[in-house]
Queue: 2 jobs
Job 1
Amino acid sequence: MNIKSKHNKAIFQAILAAALYAMSAPFSKMLLQKMSPMMMAAFIYLGAGLGMLIVGIIRNKQQKERTELRLTRKDLPYLIAMVALDIAAPIFLMFGLTMTTAANASLLGTFEIVATAVIALFIFKETISRRLWLAIVLIIISSILLSLEDAGSFSFSVGSLLVLIASTCWGLENNCTRQISNKDPLQIVVIKGIGSGAGALVIAFFAGEHISNFAFIPIVLILGFVTYGLAVFFYVYAQREIGAAKTSTYYAVAPFIGVILSFFILGERPNVLFGIALLILIVGVWLAGKQDK
């Protein structure tokens, strides 16, 4: 495969990752009518981990030599932090989805860009360009507008705030993952998925939640495998070929795909405030994707 073909394949993988992840909010919103929020969070991540474990077994049988670096004990602190944050984030997101629209949650997910950048600056001492600072400001403004109850209100939606907390958790998790990004991405997804899913399941049982409809568990597992497991898998491989900046540019279409799916699948209709926030967010996401170019 020549360089141009590899480049085009990486672009396709980045857009595919975005499209797969975008399916999460609207379909999770639907399934939350059949399953409690913490149970949903648990089985979504278990689906990602178990699904990618099967993919890994198939890959290992086909490959004679290992080409990816394995995780070691030195990576343990980052793995523990990743699992803990991936337990908290989807739980906050699922509770948030019960209180706000899937379209809102999809757009608020872009706050993860802000959280990732700010945490990278203050904890990991990475630099932030002027363009990215401007993107951060625009995304914050958009997030505030999306968090308001309505156009004439200055009270904040609890559901939107929970989604923002989830995005912050994932921002910190992104920085932890970055520290071991040279290791086998499939192995990382498996550990994150199974570890976080099992942890969330234990918390759900301790909180008194129970499985009310076993028939929907396979559906949620498949949703997790597709929207989290495969999405992260394709994202990492795209990032290796075309770099972080270009990958994030293509992946930034995910919230907008999520909004379109929410409109068609759930019949959600935006208000004026949503439209204003969307326009501001489009500029912010574009600037964030262009910041390393």
Note: The mean pLDDT is 85.
Job 2
Amino acid sequence: MGRRARLDAVIVGGGHNGLVAGTILARAGRSVLILERNQTVGGAAVSGEPFVGVGARLSTYAYLVSLFPRRLVDLLGLRLELRPRAVASYTPFDDGGLLVEEGGPRPWAEFDAMLTRVADRLFPTFTEPLLARSELRRLIDDQRAWEMLFEEPLSEVPERTFGSDLARGVVLTDATIGTFASAEDPTLRQNRCFLYHLGRWDVPVGGMGAVTDELESAARAAGVEIQTSAEVVSITPDGEVACADGRRWGARDVLANVAPVTLAALLGEPADPPEGSQLKVNMLLTRLPRLRDPGVEPEQAFAGTFHVNESYEQLQRAYEQAAGGEIPTEPPCEMYCHSLTDPSILSPELRAAGAHTLTLFGLHMPARVFADAPRERKAQALAATLRSVDSVLAEPLEDCLWRDAEGKPCLEALTPPELEVELGMPGGHIFHRDLTWPYAEREEEVGRWGVETADPHIWLCGAGARRGGGVSGIPGHNAARAVLSSGV
């Protein structure tokens, strides 16, 4: 098939960042085409009804919105409600637990205040050109915080700050979300992951699908053309994009809302794949499970992040087992109940019956542990994770599962290999690759946007860009700004 007239921009991948970039470019008068390999747009920011005959619309992959700037929501004109959770976290231990309410006093108030100061200075820079490392250090203006977060392995922070193994682990969980690293990793991958989790993580009312619906509406209203079931198989440096069915397009700029490894493959270049590390489990419950803690109601505990076997020692033991290719015997994980904050994702019948959703995110479940026998190892990982959860509850979680129209328990699990197949994420890495430092690491990067590639008209606009990761819209915004500032 011959190609059509040359476009201003072709965006490869219709995830949320591609939709953000497309909208900004189209509003600036550019002709924009988005090509999405799946039948619908949204990428990892989608909702679905996974259970037969059950009216529960769950966020399938991503489940919380992170760092989405309010001014970007306003810029795009999104009718989007991001609701804070009333509870920050609950951590069970023995027959009690640690409940931390959002906005309330915390056991580590001084440490938390330091992190808040860093976040307040750091995150506004994410939608501006990159600062040099020295400039960002001056902006943060806290030598001890800089050393703790940017220079030393994160293990040294909780070991010096907290006497409790439990408190150390609660802090360190944010360093291992989707990132397979120990607290002592000398590359500081864990530190970079921790930085991106300093901000507030909000509940999207209506689920992730509501976020995508708003972004798609904004893109189409701006004049963006969107084609689904359009799998891109190659990109050339001169802007020719080809699909598997023979369709071809030419563009001045190509924005890659795919992983850097995927972009390299489309360009015919070699690249080492990353490794994702998580087990995602979506559930529908007849009721929330009972706790061993008599002083906290399940509605409180599950409204925020419910930590399961995530002490400092438990995290390290699980990491060591997984690094050796074994499924951890006591997998650390965390859960939260979307429907406590936003019941709109449930049908009226489910709400009346007292049903609730439950999302579980398992840590230290790298792709390597599923490699030799994906189905069998998935079953083992899920069974071990449920045992881990049951160890901190007053009753088995499985006893609370809703049954679908076929009598099957309402539970679906997703491993890194499955995310690779379903979303095209190499290695199932939810951030597309290890998160990067939020500043220019080379002199020539200063003043750029962190989305540039070796080709002057090919740009990253997905989670693998510098200051990527999470459902933030930031890489899409920055890619569009980079294209617009590059001239015609």
Note: The longest helix spans residues 374-390.
